[in-house]
Amino acid sequence: MNKETTIITDLFYLPPIEYFVAIQDFEEIQIDPTENFQKQTFRNRTHILLANKEDVLTVPVIGSSKKQLYKDVKIDYSQKWKNVHLRGIQSAYGKAPFFEYFFPYFDQVFGKNLTFLFDVNMELLTVCLKLLKVKSKLRLESRIDFSPKSADIRGIIQAKERYSQRDIMTPDIYPQMFGLDFVPNLSIIDLLFCMGPESKEVIRQSKKNH
């Protein structure tokens, strides 16, 4: 039986931990820049944990329609979303053990004021893979190869559903900054800022039936 070596995925904004659980065993991650943009998805939203609640950070976009290509969707900088996101991240994780080491990598991407959501998400994903020491190659591919060595998870990780409705992850509990109850499947930055170099092992342990 051929082992799948390539995974075809959606491109998310600071993806949930579940995304990294799904991609961890693959040599290559393929992303299609020519797919249509979809609203109310992880493409422009992520979840973090504040002192009193789980919060959703959303990147506003300009006039996206179902027929618009994801790569052409522009960020709406007329809204002060970047200040809101950076304040939220600093409020949530400023005292986390690995915040001061890892935050500058993300801050550098935000500082570029990139025009397109797709480009921001690609740069942030590249940073996440680097910090996690994931060696998978990240490739843009509009001619998707559906070979026996490819797995396609596009459309599976949905923002409107709980991770438990899918067969990807059984959360490995790690110390979070706030609250007595563990909140699973937050943005990968929750794990990175709290666990640093141990994040990759938490992801490995979170694989369902690992």
Q: Could you give the topology of this structure?
A:
Layout: E1 6-8, H1 17-23, E2 28-31, E3 45-49, E4 54-58, H2 81-93, H3 99-110, H4 117-131, E5 137-140, E6 150-152, H5 188-195, H6 199-205
Helix pairs in contact: 3-4
Description:
The chain is of the alpha/beta class. It has one domain (6-205). 30% of the residues lie in helices and 11% in strands. The chain has helices spanning 17-23, 81-93, 99-110, 117-131, 188-195, 199-205, and strands at residues 6-8, 28-31, 45-49, 54-58, 137-140, 150-152. The strands form two sheets. The chain has a four-stranded parallel sheet with strand order 5-2-1-6, with no helix packed on it. The chain has a two-stranded antiparallel sheet with strand order 3-4. A hairpin with a 4-residue loop joins strand 3 and strand 4 (54-58). Helix 3 (99-110) runs antiparallel to helix 4 (117-131). The protein starts with 5 loop residues before the first strand and ends in a 5-residue tail after the last helix. The mean pLDDT is 93.
Features of the shown structure:
6 strands; 6 helices; alpha/beta; 210 residues
In short:
The protein is 30% helix and 11% strand. By secondary structure, it is an alpha/beta fold. Strand 3 and strand 4 form a beta hairpin.
